[in-house]
Amino acid sequence: MYSRIIDDLVNASGASVNKIVNLPYPIDNPTPPPATLTQVYPNSLVNMRDQVIDTVGQISTKLPLWMTSKQTDGRVLGFTPAWVICYANPGRSRQIAYYIQSQYAGSLNTVDFKVDRYILNTTLSRNWDTTTQNWTPTPSLTTFDLVLHYEVRGENADSSLSYHEIATIPAGTGGTGYASGNQILVLGSNVGGQDGVNDITITVTDVDTGGAVTIVAVSGTAPVFSLDDTYVGIAGTNITGSGVGATFGFKVASGTATTFDYGSIQFEAPVDMYDPSDRYDKYLVFPKANILV
């Protein structure tokens, strides 16, 4: 439940008085240190909002849910300069409005209060660089369906090493005595995970004449927060077959991310953690020539 603010420094067309007004006659500063004032800084809502945006930067265009929710008459309020009286359960706002009407006869402007400052909640913006207008560090964007998996190190056509789920194993690492179709198990504890949860299953798809593994396919789910971790010289145990001596290199890779709503929705990993502390907050007291200095 809210009451709309009527700003007496903004006209009916929404235009604010200037941020700086030159006085026709100098006046003495009523508070120390002694000084003669020739300019004043009207604290209209428009001026204060523009001053914050000019200095901090427009870091968010999101509105509170009550400004974007449908009202009982079907309207959506949008941005509304207002002071929040209370948050009420659905259906209770009419009852509260009745109490206010009974107590104040609908004239909330009989309630005497003053506002002399903004509170800048820097808990949510302390990593915002006002000079570059970017987050520092840049957050990694992903989707909630991201699945980390293992890829095996192999050689591509130009003999450079790369990682794939199906790869040609570098010469000299394939061991002996293997056959196509054999399977090898690498425990999750050997590749940064848990046994039984992050195990890797290697399927041999091709061998040379001596039974050395040449091509394999791998499958296995890697633990969270392990993207790009690498492991080299890892040996496994045979699930099937009797080959010996093969070693492998692995890298944790991400799956193909799904694009939702034509790219207008983004998900961040890890999950956002909100710190309700006010230890980073700043009070922006006005009137001031420069409220953030």
Q: Briefly note the structural class of the backbone.
A: mainly beta
Strand residue percentage: 25-35%
User: How do the SSEs run, as a string of H and E?
Assistant: EEEHHEHEEEEEEEEEEEEEEE
Question: Radius of gyration over alpha carbons?
Answer: 32 Å
What does this structure look like?
The chain is mainly beta. The chain folds into two domains: 2-133 and 277-285, no CATH class; 148-254, no CATH class. The protein has three helices and 19 strands. It has helices at 45-56, 65-68, 93-104, and strands spanning 2-4, 21-28, 36-40, 82-84, 117-120, 128-129, 134-135, 141-142, 148-155, 161-164, 166-168, 183-186, 200-207, 213-219, 230-234, 237-240, 248-254, 267-268, 282-285. The strands form seven sheets. Strands 11-14-13-12-16 form a five-stranded antiparallel beta sheet, with no helix packed on it. It starts with a strand and ends in an 8-residue tail after the last strand.
Quick tags:
2 domains, 10% helix, mainly beta, 3 helices, 29% strand, 293 residues, 4-stranded antiparallel sheet, elongated
How would you concisely characterize the structure shown here?
The chain is mainly β. It has helices at 45-56, 65-68, 93-104, and strands at residues 2-4, 21-28, 36-40, 82-84, 117-120, 128-129, 134-135, 141-142, 148-155, 161-164, 166-168, 183-186, 200-207, 213-219, 230-234, 237-240, 248-254, 267-268, 282-285.
